[in-house]
């Protein structure tokens, strides 16, 4: 996958336009559309934005379901060939909609197909929409210069899946509902960092991540999770919050205990997928009480661990602690 500023040569593209926050099932349907035209020698290209457009107008920093790094990972996993990331500034938000289609999408990005949802808006005052893209597609003497494809919404029950709906589910801690709309569990990517190493002293080591400041976090608490480490999927239990029992600052951390796992993974990038909420974050009167509660929490994730995984955990002979 290439991040580009334009397309050179005799390359024609199928372009998907969107914010792609969360990469939910609706977004995946859009990516499937542009990838389905490879037999016509159209290369898949995603046009997206560097930051939420509304942040420019409000002056506030909104929380996102997927950071830019996470989006790029997901685009690559989906087989996207090219990504164009538009900066959000005074010039780009005032882009005249017709010029955006003709100069940016057709001329600069060689769009032979443009796909988007019916709720698409772009350009100055958000005046650009799917109706405009359809109209401009056949403006050249009645001959279409590109094909316009409107993608139908994907439904979750009787509701249209949207980033807003997923955001509401995450913010309420309903990870099952969020995962159903995303088509995968809600994830946090990051590099394992050194913490206070309290987990080592109570024989419950944790892999510690500091989440991106723009990342939308679910309510503080303990979650059943799965962790991807070096290509392996392991069962875990994750605490998100400020650890009120052992520290007095308000820095948010994501700490995951992987039962039976004893490898040194400091400095490695891992993915933590949140499967379900177990309990809210609590402050305990002592470390012993905290340890007792963590052991009780671990029992709640015991069933999903298969016998083969349990054997794998037990077989680990590394003496290094996370």
Could you characterize what this model shows?
This protein has 322 residues and is an alpha/beta fold. The chain folds into 2 domains: 2-159, Rossmann fold, CATH 3.40.50; 186-315, Beta Barrel (Elongation Factor Tu (Ef-tu), domain 3). Helices cover 29% and strands 25% of the residues. It has 11 helices and 14 strands. The protein has helices spanning 25-35, 53-58, 68-77, 90-93, 97-108, 130-136, 163-171, 175-182, 198-201, 287-299, 307-315; strands at 2-3, 12-17, 42-49, 82-86, 111-117, 147-151, 155-156, 159-160, 186-191, 207-209, 221-229, 232-241, 253-257, 269-280. The strands form 3 sheets. The chain has a 6-stranded parallel sheet with strand order 1-4-3-2-5-6, sandwiched between helices. Strand 7 (155-156) and strand 8 (159-160) form a beta hairpin. The radius of gyration is 23 Å and the shape is elongated.
